[in-house]
Amino acid sequence: MQLSVVIPCLNESDTIATCVDKARSTIAEIDSESEVVVADNGSADGSQALALAAGARVVSVPEKGYGNALMGGIDAAKGRYVILADADDSYDFRQIPLFLDKLRDGNDLVLGCRLPSGGGVILPGAMPWLHRWLGNPLFSFLARSWFHAPIHDVNCGMRGLSKDLYRRLEPRCTGMAFATEMVIKACLLGAKIAELPVTLKPDGRKNHPPHLRTFRDGWDTLRVFLLFNPRARLLTKVFGVHYNGHSKRGPGKMPKMDLGVYAKKPTNRGRKGC
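Predicted structure:
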């Protein structure tokens, strides 16, 4: 199979059927052997049935977390290439062919870019002010300056990668920091990375707010940057993040790794981490 579109889902009854319909209608024009996989993270609002009725293959991922949902979906995906997009109808699934073309051209990872600095468009009301002007630009700057990532939007929820790269990444982050971990590890592995401008529109949710929690998820993302950068050893000590996998918030919160070794060659010691 050539392509799998993986959509993480947690209580997205407002929009999941719409997203599956858009994805299926788009990939039908690309490859009859493509599929849409909905990685359900324990929805209690009937999202699973709606996704099935719309034609998706639904995979249950009981371990909570955005990263867990994506890992479960990618693990189950049958395609050579995997394109990820959120279930809130904020991304344009008609851009799937553009991501696939970039992957077929030899890129290992293709990131969408919502920020104007990379050619993207953010429609009014689509992104909170703090994320738009501080969080995403700051973390994207760190990805470029610390890891030479050729990108402008490290956290974009629409992206594509080869299944081969995913196996090499051996991801561990179970929450929102999964997106950042993917980019950093791809850089450390010397993967070929490309970027595509995308348009972000206000999501279609009516029953609940976004799952992203600004300060908690922002802190987790910063910790990932610190852990993967050997030059940040002093900062990791100041912020209470230690190399044995423990932080002041309790054991098991961070990957067990030595930064100097890990920056050269990622290894897999289980997924319990950031």
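Summary: Residues 242-270 have pLDDT under 50 and may be disordered.
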